[in-house]
Write a structure and sequence with these properties.
3 domains, 9-stranded mixed β-sheet, Ferritin, alpha/beta, Rossmann fold
Amino acid sequence: MTLADYIEIETTRDELIRACKQAADLIRTRVDYKYILVLLFLKRLSDEWKKEYNEALKTLLEKGLDRKEAEVLAKDKSFHRFTYPEKYLWEELRKNINELPVRLSEALKLLAEKNPELQGVVDRLDFLEFTRHRDNFDILVQLFELFSGLNLGRASDSILGDAYEWLIGYFAPQKAKEGEVFTPSEVVDLIVRIVDPQPMDSVYDPAAGYARMLIRAYDYVKQKYGEEEAKKLFLYGQEVNPTTYAIAKMNAIVHGIKDIKLEVGDTLKNPRFKEGETFRKFDIVIANPPWNQDGYGEEELKKAEFYDERFKYGFTPKQSADWAWIQHMLASAKRKVGVVIDNGCLFRGGKERQIRKAILERDLIECVILLPEKLFYNTGAPGAIIIFNKQKPENRKGKILFINASNEFEKHPEVRKLNRLGEQHIEKIVNAYNEFKDGDGFCRVVSLEEIRENDYNLNVTLYVFPQEEIEEIDVAKEWEELRAIEEEMREVELRIEEYLSELKY
């Protein structure tokens, strides 16, 4: 079959998710699921290139070009999003399964060479190393054949994005045990809706992970203002783990986001985004950094780039970098910061209290949200969201909104021990933030003066606590029911006495 004969049958969301579930069953916990993501990405690039080739060929033939000339021109890179080496198209790789690991490694290496934006991305995982164990070779072949039944050339970005999200979420419990940070989709959605990015904004995540917060910011603007406006967003992220960075880049591409800028490196030590002689500033900064990360005490932070500007409110204790992350985010923001963080950083003393006090006195904190327990894969502890605003409206100055969302959850439909935020819970929290007023044991506006009196303690339960529902009691009805019970007891006692008297005779 020639490239021109390639028949394009669109793969549906259900078909793709079903294939992902089968792939997950194949590998279980035996091998890293990132190999599935790479194969899925390669299949997408291969099928997309074939689709672009056919569309270009059709256009050129309609313009009257000779078929042979048109077939050559249709392969020109001007018709394609990525340059794809034709001899490594999926169907070509399939012709010799025994050589699959070698050919896959060659394909990914060549893709990285021909597409600078894929360097350090598709060539990050080694299929030759992966298949040194014979069982892994069999798994690779089965995965390859499974994806061979899909046509991803015309599948929408949202469908591919959903597949990536499903796979990342499915393996999150396993990866959490290995130390990876995974933010539940509902928490990502909540924080993005609160910070409310607009077209033309720059959005930065200094602990990007799989870039899910940045992708959600893009989708939020797309849903609210349209795709063309979403394309006007400027997205930036930094991730310390090179393999996680590679998945983040692929994740953004399959979501249809072309202009995201991602860098590899330790953000606290060396922020990669710079402007002139200093670090870059962004309209909005959002992140779920590693909680209670150790190893970033005063001695270490003083070695960091721009430390005097980024950590000007104080140095964190060696055992927890929570307020180091927060300070970096504040220093990097022009307008708003939204951070998901350990609840303990709201009230711990010592160096953290001093930093908290300095930031509070500058009136930078706008809202503190206590989340429910058991939302996160790697801890049952209730996290918190802190919203900082450098451009507080006049009516919010000198005040902080505390939201106690500890009861706003439903049981997770797939993970027995977990809870999750439902849509109604997210809406309730976002509405409370937007309205910025007291609300029946759920939220309360607190003055900076009251927080000073509490020694700069930001523990949400200190300021707002869910009201217990008091059941109204109908006293008359309860009295009647009690009298009826007593009457029944007297009748039973009489019958027992009669029975005992009969036994005596």
